[in-house]
Please model this.
Amino acid sequence: MNLLKHFLAKRRPDVPPLDYGVLRCDVHSHFIPGIDDGAPTVEASLELLQAMYNLGFRKVVTTPHSMADGYKNPPEVILGGLEKLRRAAKEANLHLEVDAAAEYYLDHALQEKTAKQELLTFGQDMVLFELPFIAEPVVLMNIVFELQTQGYTPVLAHPERYTFWHANLGTMEQLKDRQVLFQLNTVALAGSYGPAVKKAAERIIDKGWYELVGSDCHSLKHVDALEAARTEPFLHKLVDSGKLMNATL
Model:
C-alpha cells in the first residue's frame, strides 16, 4: 500500500453505501417545474424524480421557495404545479408518491401567513422554514412561538448551513428546547457546501438534534452528491440513531 492509500484508509474506514430506502421519504426538494430555482421543465422534473426513485426513495415532499420577494409562490401556484407534476409522473409510469409543501423564508410574509393559517404543511402540521444566511433574525424566537401557537410544528431547514452559528450552538440548543425540528441537507455530508458546513452537520448529528433529512435537490448535481453521501459515516450514524421521522411520513 502506498502512502496515499494508507492515509485514506486510516482517515476513513470502508463504509457500505446506505440504502436510502430505509428513509422512504425525502422531505425537502425543488421538483415542481418552473416556479423557483429548481427543475426548470417537466422533463427535468421527471429526470430528478426517476433519480430519487433509483436511489431508493418511494415518496418525496417537494418544497418550493415561498417568500415575500422573489419566489412568492402562494399555495394555489404550488398545488397547481403539484397536480401538473403528478400527472406527468403518472404518464411516465413513475411509481413514486409526490406531495408538496413549501420552504418558507423567514420574513414578514411568513408572519402574515402564519397568522392567517395559510401555510402548506407535511406530516403532522409540519412547516419547513429557512433563515437568511447573513445573520440570525432577531424575530426568530417570536416566529417559532407564533407558529406553535397556531398549531404548526416548525421544521428548521438545513441548520448546518447557517455559518453565524458555527462558533456557538447556543441558539440551536434554545430551538431544540422549544421543540423545533431540524432537517439536515444530506448533501452537506458530501461536502457540497464546503468543509465548515460538513463539520457543523457532523456536530449536530453528534448532539442528536436532527429528526428529518432532505436532499434539497435542485438538479442532477445534487443527485450525484446524494450518491456520494451514501458512504459517509455520519449519515449512517444518524440513520442508526433511530431519531429520524422520514419513514413515518
Notes: The chain has one domain: 20-248. Residues 28 and 197 are 18 Å apart (CA to CA). Residues 20-248 form a domain with the TIM Barrel fold (CATH 3.20.20.140).
